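Weekly sync, protein design subgroup
Attendees: M.S., D.O., the rotation student, P.L. (late)

Item 1: inverse folding check
M.S. brought a backbone from last month's batch and wanted to see whether the design step gives back something sensible before we order anything. D.O. pointed out we never logged the input encoding, so this time it goes straight into the notes. Structure tokens as presented (430 positions):
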């Protein structure tokens, strides 16, 4: 049987005993009224009963040690019930207030009943934008309440009151998260522990104000986090007016009566000038872009007029200097490279090394330098001696030995004699 049940049974028995004793005394009084001897006997019985009742009551009284919120109170009770003891304690010590949520523990030994009461407190934890209300008890500290609320502190976080402070009723505990953040602004970088605020609030807390055109590397409404790097770029504008040149254009006209390759400047070109109003954008003092606001022409440019010859020089090849040449018929052709060197002439018919009948336009080359089938245009460096269009189709000892770069086929012996040996350019055609 539990201690509380034993105490209740004991209390019930004592009450019944006292009631029976009282009834017995009443009966004894009535008896004594009848005979003297009987009255004496009854008197003795009453004395015995009274003494026994007193002894019984004294035996039922117990010491109580009550610890209330760290303070110890002592009292005596004839009741073993916890609530009766608490009610008696309240009547004896008005400062003791026991609520329904308080923590009550009890133990008993042979000498006393020991009660411990810890008052229940409502504690509110404000963390991460939310509030958590938990039940705390006398003697618990802030760290205990945080654990009950499921709030874990980071190494840089701050809590108010401090973790080791004891809580009281209606305690409010605030947790401020702090993060390692770097801010670069106005040529300075600062490292700091910033609370869990927006980027805008963090900049304001650091005394960094933003202009309407300034740039920030992260969204101002974003909340700071560990390792965040915030870069503030100052943006300024400046309006300037400058004078700029207006380049002239060139118009080219062809003249069929002017030999090809000749150029005549009819009108010299002249640059113009204009006044330009610009808006310049600077980021951290460096020019980032310019926007033209208005332009005023101060002097119109003069167009250059050029006449170029279009009349072909028959019988002469002209190198144009841009990867093209004009052949002896006045046609412009492109070439990929030029092979220059001494060339000779040969005749006599027969077949070439590629199996084709020998003919004008089929020339002998070193196929390791100029592969068979390569198309060429052959003329002297000054263009006055023209062999014309040719195909690499034959070879011979002279070209293989490197003494000559090409052996040019002619139909007659006299043509070969007239050509002799001379320097020629082999223009490799595209």
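Designed sequence read out in the meeting:
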């Amino acid at each position: 049987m539990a201690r509380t049940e034993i105490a209740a049974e004991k209390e019930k028995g004592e009450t019944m005993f006292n009631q029976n004793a009282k009834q017995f005394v009443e009966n004894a009084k009535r008896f004594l009224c009848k005979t003297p001897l009987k009255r004496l006997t009854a008197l003795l019985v009453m004395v015995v009963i009274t003494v026994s009742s007193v002894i019984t009551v004294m035996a039922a009284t117990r010491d109580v040690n009550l610890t209330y919120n760290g303070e110890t109170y002592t009292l005596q009770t004839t009741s073993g019930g916890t609530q009766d003891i608490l009610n008696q304690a309240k009547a004896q010590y008005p400062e003791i207030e026991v609520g329904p949520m308080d923590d009550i523990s009890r133990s008993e030994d042979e000498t006393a009943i020991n009660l411990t009461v810890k008052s229940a407190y409502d504690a509110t934890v404000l963390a991460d934008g939310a509030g958590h209300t938990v039940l705390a008890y006398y003697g618990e500290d802030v760290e205990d309440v945080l654990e009950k609320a499921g709030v874990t502190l980071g190494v840089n976080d701050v809590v108010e009151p401090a973790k080791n402070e004891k809580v009281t009723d209606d305690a409010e505990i605030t947790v401020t998260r702090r993060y390692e953040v770097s801010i670069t602004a106005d040529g300075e970088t600062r490292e700091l522990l910033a609370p869990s605020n927006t980027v805008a609030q963090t900049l304001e807390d650091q005394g960094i104000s933003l202009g309407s055109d300034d740039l920030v590397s992260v969204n101002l409404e974003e909340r700071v986090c560990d390792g965040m790097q915030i870069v503030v770029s100052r943006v300024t504008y400046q309006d300037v007016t400058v004078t700029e040149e207006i380049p002239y254009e060139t118009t080219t006209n062809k003249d069929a009566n002017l030999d090809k390759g000749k150029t005549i400047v009819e009108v010299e070109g002249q640059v113009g000038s204009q006044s330009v109003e610009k808006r310049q954008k600077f980021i951290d003092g460096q020019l980032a872009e310019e926007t033209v606001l208005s332009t005023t022409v101060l002097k119109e440019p003069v167009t250059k007029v050029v006449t170029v010859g279009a009349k072909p020089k028959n019988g002469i090849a002209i190198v144009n200097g841009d990867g093209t040449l004009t052949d002896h018929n006045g046609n412009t052709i492109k070439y990929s490279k030029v092979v220059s060197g001494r060339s000779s002439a040969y005749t006599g018919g027969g077949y070439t090394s590629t199996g084709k009948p020998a003919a004008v336009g089929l020339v002998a080359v070193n196929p390791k330098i100029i592969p068979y089938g390569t198309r060429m245009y052959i003329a002297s460096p000054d263009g006055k001696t023209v062999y014309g269009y040719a195909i690499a189709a034959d070879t011979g000892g002279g070209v293989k030995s490197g003494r000559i770069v090409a052996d040019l086929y002619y139909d007659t012996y006299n043509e070969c004699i007239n050509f002799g040996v001379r320097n020629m350019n082999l223009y490799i055609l595209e």
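Discussion: DSSP finds seven helices and 26 strands in the chain. Residues 3-32 form the longest helix (30 residues).
Action: P.L. to compare against the previous round before Friday.
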